[in-house]
Amino acid sequence: MTNLATYSANDLVQGFQSREFSPVEVLDSVLERVEQLNPTLNAFAMIDPDRARAAARASEDRWAKGAPVGSVDGVPTTIKDMTLTEGWPTLKGSRTTNPAGPWNEDAPLVARLKENGAVLVGKTTTPEFGWKGVTDSPLTGISRNPWNSDLTCGGSSGGAAIAAATGMGALHQAGDGGGSIRIPAALCGVFGLKPTYGRVPLYPQGYGSMGLLAHYGPITRTVADAALMLTVMARPDPRDWLALPSESGSYLEGLEDGVSGLRIAYSPTLGGAQAEPDVASIVEKAVKVFEQLGAVVEEAIPPIEDPLPCFLTFYESGAASVARLAEAELGMCDPGLREMAERGREVTAEQLYDAWQTRERLARTLNQFHQQYDLLITPQLSVTAFAAGVNQPPRFLSFWEWTPFTYLFNLTHQPAAALPCGFNADGLPVALQIVAPRHEDRRVLRASRAFERVRPIRLPDVTKKVSLHV
Fold this sequence. Notes:
By secondary structure, the protein is an alpha/beta fold. Helix content is 34%, strand content 15%. Mean pLDDT is 96; it is low at 466-470.
């Protein structure tokens, strides 16, 4: 029998219902994977086997009585170590966070997952305060790519993407303030969805203007699992005053409706970005699949101005809160984070006002663009995975240079997904990005599923990579 750790969440729920296997058996398989792989890949900031086993036993009892409490009852799930979880420290990859807490509150999405019976395994790694597009931190060290452990897994939700790719859980919560769901999903070869802003309640809001960029969403091994997880997490909560009202029904509904007749814009450069030749070629070939599935695809570039200066004004001014730490604590932080926080302290009210004006123009331009196109497809990243432990490949000066397709859609609050679409000559994953207008999360999921049906997501064979390359 296939290892239970590799089953999709939807298949696990069906298996629990038919009593083919139990939540306890599944969790044992997942914890075995964690014990085997985590020492090398470093996906977890903390693991709580005892609490997870107690939750799995309780779920097993409910399924035996035919009385599951929700749609993910018994499914092994991870939480990013940026997200409040009652009883577990949320250290955010930082030695400046006091592990003593108190940790007496669940973030809204964690509460919803628990209410629906999810079995929480542990908290996944992040760079310090989620500040960059790779995952290493002063607290937890370097997290590594499951396809080649010499390479980065991306970030900031790197631990979640590693765990998804290797069967260390079926559902994985992630966050995205400038690409942090989509970057690691792309580099690790799994599916990641940044929903419309506010679709999943965000509490606490985070760091000033950074919180107005941040989206919570799923990283999973299948599109259907992301739809299942989003259905659970996307419930309003009074602690987030910007949360969207609940949509009726499950995000699994309509998932198989395909893309026939949809108008898709393919933008290989997004007006100024440049993907590496192998990445660009793989994405261009993958886009043709949507034509074969009945969509109308044409190359088109949204007429946008460069979004990076605007984005950095919000991002760096939000990070400036780090600079308010005591000097001794500041010295414990990632040097790159300290530098960014210092730049953020120099942002003026006038610059923030100008950034808001630019942001409005960008959002309006994309709204108008989507009057003609149902979806926009781009490369997800300009590169494949590079060396672990550095912020960017040598030819780039900052991590924003190799992620030019991501941060625009945090400014505009649009749903966007990283969808694996092939491998380069070195066997490393490549992903395309699917973007829809605000509130059209279902459309992104539907298009992603149409592609996945004909090009299933392929995962690393960890049975051959246990020793890896470290």
